[in-house]
Request: fold
Amino acid sequence: MVFKKGILIAFVASVIFSSAVYGGQSDENLNKSVVTSTEEMQQQKTWSDYFVVAHACGAVDGRTETNCKEAFIQNYEKGQRVFEIDFSLTLDNKLVARHDFEQNSYYVMEQSYNKKVPVMMHDKFMSTPINFKYTPMDAHMVVSLLNEYKDAYIITDSKNTDKASIEKEFTLLKEAVEKSGNTEIFDRIVVQIYYPEMQGYVRSLGGFKNFMLTTYQIKNPDYGNLAEYCSKNDIEAMVMPKEVVTKEIVNTIHSKGVKVYTHTLNRLYDIKQYIDVYGIDGVYSDIIVEDDIKYITE
Reply:
């Protein structure tokens, strides 16, 4: 066999490399290396590579809108990796995972409502089980879960739109991340903004890198202009209520290279319709998890 000089060098180098990497390894160790490599590749997926966002951490034992620890863990174990979490401020200005302190939230979570002082103090909130048995979370507990479940992401839903409240809430979330000692967690927090200027308010605090634009609080949204803003400001996706989704809106947003999510859908049949008819890229759901999507897309 005759080798040209360049080919011979490449061949010898490949043999040396293969020997260094695989030489002396048993089949078992080699298989472990392949498994580890596969797991690392899976963990490199970013939040927008997933189709399903677990609404308020997803359902736990059939109960929805709890934002509780058990909901997060139960849905993670089902294969869910992206979780929307509602955040509110307590009466003593602590950040907790709760939709709000309105009467309906107390009803949903089976807690006593105090009309005179509806907003709980932090200690009261943390010591009052949700639906009598589930664990409420504050910002530090949410960050602790992200520290433990290292391929999980959260999308914030902080509700308030005024600059002062935004800065207060995300300062507290930032402090929780920094206190954890693991600033990598910033990479797995997606800040849901309610209008373009909000991105600037949060970015000025430092730390936060990922953003998503929701349209449900914008009156008469101009989807073309909003998508253009997202495209120019590293916002990967927009999310909107299912009632307003049209093919024209989705095409307009897609033309700017931006993904479209909608909320909230809890039937695979409906999700398939939104994929087939409108071309959406993702969905918020209470009960559907990521692994379920294979039934309608394969």
User: Anything to note?
Assistant: Residues 1-41 have pLDDT under 50 and may be disordered. Residues 139 and 173 are 6 Å apart (CA to CA). The first strand starts at residue 52 and ends at 54.
